[in-house]
Design a protein that fits this description.
Mean pLDDT: 85
Distance between the termini: 87 Å
Helix content: 40-55%
Low-confidence stretches: 13-22
Shape: elongated
Length: 786
């Protein structure tokens, strides 16, 4: 028994491990009817599906037969040859033209599948109650598109009057069929509208587009060029947008992402067609009559998508109500403008921010104030000239009488020899200038923080809009699942209504996100002193365009490793803040100015003001006089030195001294409070920044887990293993995790920039030498035992 058992086991292993060819799998030959314009993508998709389903049972081979669309008389001959070819087991057509040719052939000696049928009724095809053709050996796959519904949806977006249907010029067989079909569809949807079919030639797209009549105000885009023709399809769409024409796509989201304004076709339509062909081929290979196989596809719910960027390109904006159930693609495209990155924003803010410009003017004004105070210490010289005329009674013409008309000049010199008021004012104005320079430095640093905050807030808003838009998309898909489950009776209508409610709430969140994006954009424009409505395209914070934060230096980041290092690092930053903070230096200057003011008030009680003065007069000429004034008498002069003490001012000077002392005391208290507040700010900002650094990785882990959990719960919900509450909770958790991950990235930059601001210097603005010295001081401080 044992030898027999061993031989049997070996034989079974050999059988299981023999290659498929050695087992003699039957060969199934398929003839593919294609034309040059359409087959690459759809054909490859269908072939892949067929190979996947049949590979374990059949060896599938393919024969390609291309049909020339310009020689329709050869159609019958090509198909007849394939019908008579004994090596061909099945014929499949994969285009509108080739499928139409196969339909018109009429009788079928072997199994055939017309892979693309636009409308069975229009093309004269029967449909049995069982969902098959009922014609022996003939099967067709009805395209799951609904052109009538497309045109109705398009009409709600834009009230077109003359619609252009873009059609591939090589598909000549279907021209009259499509013309008839669209004629009926347009008449039903918009009785007052007209239409025309515009043929687009693959070899001259630009010329074809010029064939669109000036009467056309909207365009319906058919899938003109598939496979390698995607670039040409995109060229057509861009040309339509250049003409400022609203457009709608038959194919779905793929063409909307290329620039078509809108579509409602589910993306899975083409995949579903290829899968139906493959399933029917398997049944045919197994011996079933093609005429009994299904022709219909499982219909998916609408995928209503609009390209918001196209609105701007064509300068047309539908009403919000018409977009209430749509997914919005390329939302940022609607606000495209000059690109900005973080470093560019900071540079532009430092050049253009109005608050900073006004602060610079204040510094310039204070510089002039110093000059005015200095001028009071210098001599003052005045020069005056006068022409004097006296009456005739005093000018009688005698020898000793004055002249009737005299032209004189006089000069005056005044110089303060000593005045503590002047000296104090000059010193105080210099201190105030230094204080103003520190204020300008503080404003510059605040401008950086404000600009970066506004920029990141715009990134926040953009990310939130994307997250909310994606969340709405997920909700629509969940709504589809609920509708499908309700159709088979596994859930009640209430569950569908619940998802309808979720869809409405998600739409509200998306609207709020869009509003926040506009507000963030306007805020950044204001800070950069741009037109408030100017469009901006912001780049994400990437290494190539971001600023160099202090914490990105490994020599600094290591001190966030544990609590002890962090505490010691905090002590170092306090020292650096005392060294660098302009606010602390500013209050020191204010304190010095108050001390000088107190000294001035004390000196005013006993020090005099000493003045030097002098005048000289000169008679330049005399008229109507017998004898002019002698030359040694015509320039009298005086010189004087005076000193003055205020003996009694009603006690005003003592009161002013007391007031100045109180103000000095107040400034000292403010200085102490300012130190406390900035030291607290340094330590709290460091704690916050350290947490931000750790939260980036944690938020990514949370996001990964939330996404995995959501996919599991969504699949379980579709299969009936999870409830709607489970799925809503999982979806909300995913949204919150997505938002948290974005917040962690951007908050990291904000928190560490706030830390640098609180210590009074920005690492990215420092010179290489300053950065090196900083690291040296840091290392020495950390190596010192506290």
């Amino acid at each position: 028994m044992k030898p027999l058992f061993f031989m049997t086991t070996v034989l079974m292993i050999l059988i299981l491990t023999l290659p498929a060819a050695a087992l003699g799998k039957p060969i199934f030959n398929i003839a593919l009817l294609t034309d040059d314009s359409r087959e690459p993508a759809y054909q490859q998709m269908a072939v892949n599906e067929i190979n996947t389903l049949l590979k374990n049972r059949y060896t599938v081979t393919y024969i390609n037969r291309k049909m020339d669309p310009e020689k329709t008389t050869d159609d019958t001959a090509v198909i007849s040859n394939l019908m008579e070819d004994a090596s061909v087991d099945c014929i499949i057509s994969l285009g509108l033209d080739t499928s139409h040719a196969l339909v018109q052939y009429g009788s079928y000696l072997k199994p055939v599948i017309a892979g693309t049928i636009l409308d069975p009724k229009l093309q004269g095809l029967p449909l049995t109650p069982e969902g098959s053709s009922g014609i022996k050996n003939f099967n067709y796959v009805q395209a799951p598109f609904d052109i009538g519904k497309d045109l109705m949806t398009f009409k709600r977006l834009y009230d077109y009057k003359h619609l252009a249907i873009l059609f591939n010029a090589r598909e000549t067989r279907m021209f009259h069929t499509l013309y008839s079909y669209f004629g009926k569809a347009v008449a039903k949807v918009s009785p007052g509208a007209t239409f025309s079919i515009v043929e687009i030639a693959a070899d001259d797209v630009e010329k074809s587009i010029t064939g669109i009549s000036s009467r056309v105000d909207a365009v319906y885009v058919l899938p003109l060029f598939l496979g390698d023709g995607k670039d040409k399809q995109k060229t057509v769409i861009q040309a339509v947008n250049h003409r400022k024409l609203p457009s709608f796509a038959l194919l779905g989201e793929t063409h909307v992402r290329m620039g078509v304004m809108a579509s409602i076709a589910p993306d899975r339509n083409i995949n579903a067609m290829a899968r139906r062909i493959a399933i029917n081929v398997l049944d045919i290979a197994d011996g079933q009559d093609a005429g009994t196989l299904p022709v219909m596809l499982s219909r998916h719910n609408d995928n209503f998508v609009v390209n918001v960027g196209t609105f701007r390109d064509i300068d047309y904006y539908p009403s919000w109500s018409s977009l209430s159930t749509a997914r919005l693609l390329n939302l940022e495209g609607s606000q495209k403008g000059r690109k900005l990155h973080l470093r560019g924003v900071i540079r532009e803010a430092l050049e253009r921010n109005l608050d900073l410009q006004m602060e610079k003017i204040d510094t310039a004004v204070q510089t002039r104030e110093v000059g005015v105070a200095r001028a009071a210490r210098l001599p003052r010289i005045d020069l005056a000239t006068a022409m004097n005329v006296i009456d005739k009674n005093r000018a009688n013409g005698g020898v000793t009488d004055p002249a009737r008309t005299t032209w004189t000049a006089s000069g005056t010199l005044s110089q303060t020899i000593f005045s503590d008021d002047i000296l104090a004012n000059y010193a105080i104005q210099q201190m105030m200038l230094e204080s103003q320079r520190y204020q300008e430095r503080a404003t510059l640093m605040d401008t950086v923080i404000t600009a970066v905050g506004a920029y990141i807030n715009l990134l926040f808003a953009r990310s939130n809009q994307i997250i909310q838009n994606d969340n709405l998309d997920v909700t629509l898909k969940n709504l589809d699942i609920a509708k499908n489950k309700a159709t088979v009776g596994s859930v009640g209508a209430s569950e569908v209504y619940r998802w309808e409610s979720e869809r409405a709430k998600n739409q509200i969140s998306l609207n709020d996100a869009y509003r926040d994006l506009q507000l963030a954009r306007m805020s950044l424009n204001r800070i950069l002193n741009r037109p408030i409505e100017q469009r901006i395209t912001v780049e994400d914070i990437e290494p190539a365009t971001a600023i160099e934060l202090l914490i990105t230096d490994p020599g600094v980041y290591q001190y966030l490793d544990n609590f002890k290092k962090l505490a010691r690092f905090s002590d170092f930053l306090i020292v650096e803040a005392d060294r660098n903070l302009p606010e602390l230096k500013q209050i020191k200057e204010t304190l010095r100015s108050r001390e000088r003011e107190v000294l001035n008030k004390k000196r005013a009680l006993y020090l005099p003001n000493v003045q030097l003065g002098g005048t000289v007069d000169k008679i330049l000429d005399e008229y109507d006089v017998a004898n002019k004034t002698e030359s040694d008498l015509d320039h009298p002069w005086t010189l004087s030195v005076s000193a003055a003490w205020p003996l009694f001012t009603g006690g005003a000077r003592h009161r002013e001294l007391e007031k100045s002392r109180l103000q000095l005391r107040q400034i000292r208290m403010e200085e102490k409070d300012l130190y406390n507040r900035f030291h607290l700010q340094v330590r709290s900002n460091l704690e916050t920044a350290a947490v931000s650094a750790r939260e980036i990785k944690l938020s990514q882990e949370a996001l990964t887990a939330a996404r995995k959990n959501f996919r599991i719960i969504q699949a379980g919900y579709a299969e009936g293993r999870n409830t709607i509450a489970d799925l809503i909770d999982a979806q909300n958790a995913k949204v919150n995790s997505e938002w948290g991950a974005q917040v962690a990235r951007y908050q990291f930059v904000l928190d560490f920039l706030d830390l640098e601001r609180s210590m009074g210097q920005f690492h990215f603005l420092d010179t290489p030498e300053s950065k090196t010295l900083f690291l040296v001081r840091l290392q020495e401080f950390m190596d010192t035992t506290p």
